Each structure stands twice: as structure tokens, then as C-alpha cells.
Amino acid sequence: MEYRQRYAINGILLYVVSSIFVAYLIFNVLDDTKTWNALFWIILLFSATNATSKSFQHESNSRFLYIYMLASPQSLIISKTLYNMLLIVFVGLVHLTFFSLLIGNPIEDIALFISGLVLGSMGIASVLTFVAAIAAKTNNNTTLMAVLSFPIMLPLLLTVIKVSTLAGVGFGFEEGGIYLLVLGLINVVIFTLAYILFPYLWRA
């Protein structure tokens, strides 16, 4: 179903590229690492929210009932989450490529940064997918999605920004490895909670 809606992916990529181009028109080249990191994650976060908010948009009550007869709720939330993880990681890498080409890249340890980007994108996708499922039960209230997702995502964002900051000033995996481990654990916790709680939400 998601593959048949490829226009949505094109729309997300257009949003990312246009946002970066607007930032390029304003800043031209960014040498300050803190400003670069802040702008990078703000654009990516809004792109991820835009991408995942439609995860359950087309699942009306009748379609939920039809899917209920075909698959378990665990299978549905796992498939939605994995799809959104792949999508946001892909968008994040495209985002990094265009960001580096247009605005520059002051990050000194790019390997640590990409590791944080991948784990952070996966965590953001997990949170937003589960919150989108909750919002789907309230007639896809995007305001509710924004309100619910931010407190849950705050520890994840603080950790991924710490990794990005360390990578920006040249620290490697020795210093940033502990934060990557924390990101991985946060991903596991979020994924597990979604797996356990989604069946109750499904029957609501």
C-alpha cells in the first residue's frame, strides 16, 4: 500500500530540498557547527513528521476491520514502523547530501555523525509511527500528534544532538559510543512499547 503511494515520497523529498535551498539562500555557507546542527535537525524533524503523519491516514474503521482479518496488530505496527524507519533514514541521508552540497559540512567526524543520524532517524520514525496510530483513532488530529510526540521524543533528540555536537568538534566513537548505545536502547524501548500497546489501541 505504501509503495503504491510513491507520490508521497516525492513530496517529502521536494519538501526537504526546497527547505535546504531556502536555508542556502539565507545563510549561503554555514561554518558554525552549532547553527549547522540546529538547522539540520529542525528541517529533518519537520520532514519526518510530515512523512509519518500519513501512516494511518487512509486506514478508516472499515479498512482497519479488513486488515484485522488479514494480519495481527503486531504485524501491522512492525511493518509500518520498519517502513517508516527505512523511509526516514533514506530521507536523512538525502538531506545530509544536499545540506552538505549547498550549505557546506563543518562536521569533522562524519562516521560518528552518520551513525547518530541513522539511529536518530530510526527512533524518530518509531515514535512518530506509534503516535500517528493514536492520532488515527481521533480522526487523524495532527495537533494531537505534535503534542504527544514531542515529550516522548525529547530524550531521543537530546541524545542525538549530543552525538552531532561531538562529531562536529572532532570526537570519535570512543567519546560518542556511549550516546550511540543510549540511542539504540531508546529505539528498542520505543519499538517494544509500540509492539505491546498497539493491540490495545487496535481494539479501541
Could you explain how this protein is built, in words?
It is a single chain. This protein is an all-alpha fold. It has one domain. The protein is globular and about 55 Å long. The model has no long low-confidence stretch (mean pLDDT 83).
Write the layout of secondary structure elements.
Layout: H1 6-27, H2 33-52, H3 61-70, H4 73-103, H5 110-136, H6 142-168, H7 173-202
Helix pairs in contact: 1-2, 1-4, 2-4, 2-5, 2-6, 4-5, 4-7, 5-6, 5-7, 6-7
Give the helix/strand class. Answer: mainly alpha
Helix content: over 70%
Count of DSSP strands: 0
Mind telling me the C-alpha Rg?
Answer: 18 Å
Low-confidence stretches: none
Quick structural summary:
This protein is mainly alpha-helical and 204 residues long. The protein is built from seven helices and no strands.
